[in-house]
Write a structure and sequence with these properties.
This protein has 310 residues and is an alpha+beta fold. The protein has helices spanning 8-11, 17-22, 53-61, 70-77, 83-86, 130-137, 143-154, 171-180, 187-194, 204-215, 261-274, 293-304, and strands at residues 15-16, 35-39, 42-45, 67-68, 91-96, 107-112, 119-122, 125-128, 227-228, 234-236, 240-242, 247-251, 278-282. It has a three-stranded antiparallel beta sheet with strand order 1-3-2. A three-stranded mixed beta sheet has the order 4-5-6.
């Protein structure tokens, strides 16, 4: 006997039994072998690669009180997470403090106090706001990973950049979240991280590069710098820069192995020299260890240009 096809809106996402009931799906159909029982009352279509909101939708459908929080909310906002957190696929669900914490298989339940505006929706999935998500992450991320998460949220580039970008939230939004919740776990770390967050870092390695330089006592590189030619046309957009010394920092991630990128890197290096700038090219290896190689590279270039430590 041919299996009854699921309604289209349920065939491409996780769903709860209530949602299938509302769609007129017989209960017997929800026990078929092409559906995976991932938690009590929650089904996932087998063989369909689900991620993001589609994979998590049923968890907030199951209770009108629940919202995704912590690393689960972070994934939907695109916030970069360290490897240990990225590999932990337990679902973080939060209820208001007046209710009990959610209890489900593969779910980490929380009871949280929410200020107005700290819960919202993405594709029908309820979750904590970007700023509130960042604050909750302060209890489970290291300082540098928390700064990288904040840098990601506030990053923006103007229309004179090759890839303009609007921020997801502002540093002021993060500060407001900290102010609203005195006594929360991780609050001291969040306050310290706020002082280190900057607008303009496109990736965690760019954040780690800047933090390593500052921790070593070197001048902090400026972000969102545009280097123009004599005609005022933007030509270079270094990941970090020292305008006074005409030094640009360029982190080379995995995309630099893509076809054609090598030639683009050469053209950028030639343009740097033509404009009188020095380019320091950095890789992942330059960020490793207690005293990353980036520190010595930047220090040597600064000293060669006349900088002296105080």
């Amino acid at each position: 006997m041919r299996r009854k096809q699921l309604p289209q809106h349920l065939s491409r996402r996780s769903f709860g039994i209530q949602a299938s009931d509302d769609a007129g799906v017989p209960r017997g159909r929800t026990r078929a072998s092409d559906l995976i029982v991932v938690s009590r009352g929650i089904r996932m279509p087998a063989g369909v690669p689900l991620k993001g909101a589609a994979a998590l939708a049923a968890y907030t459908e199951a209770s009108p009180l629940s919202v995704l929080s912590h690393t689960s909310a972070a994934r939907l906002w695109g916030i970069p997470l360290p490897a240990a957190a990225e590999s932990d696929w337990r679902i973080h669900l939060a209820n208001p403090t007046a209710a009990g914490a959610p209890r489900r298989v593969n779910v980490v339940g929380h009871r949280l106090s929410f200020a107005p505006g700290e819960c919202c929706e993405i594709e029908g999935v309820r979750l904590t706001s970007p700023a509130r998500t960042w604050l909750d992450l302060a209890a489970c991320l290291s300082m540098r990973d928390l700064v990288a998460a904040g840098d990601f949220l506030v990053c923006s580039h103007g229309y004179d950049f090759p890839y303009p970008k609007d921020s997801i939230c502002t540093a002021g939004d993060l500060a407001d979240a900290v102010r609203r919740h005195p006594g929360m776990r991780g609050l001291r770390r969040a306050r310290e991280a706020l002082e280190l967050i900057r607008v303009g870092a496109d990736s965690p390695p760019e954040t780690f590069m800047r933090l390593a330089i500052v921790d070593a006592g070197l001048p902090e590189p400026e972000l969102n710098v545009i280097v123009s030619c004599e005609q005022g046309i933007p030509r270079l957009w270094p990941d970090g820069a020292y305008r006074k010394y005409r030094i640009g920092l360029q982190y080379e991630g995995a995309h630099h192995n893509m076809p054609g990128q090598y030639q683009r890197d050469i053209r950028r290096l030639d343009m740097s020299r033509a404009l009188g700038w020095e380019e320091i090219r950095l890789s992942r290896e330059d960020l490793r260890g207690d005293r990353p190689a980036v520190v010595d590279k930047v220090a040597a270039s600064l000293r060669a240009k006349g900088w002296e430590p105080r």
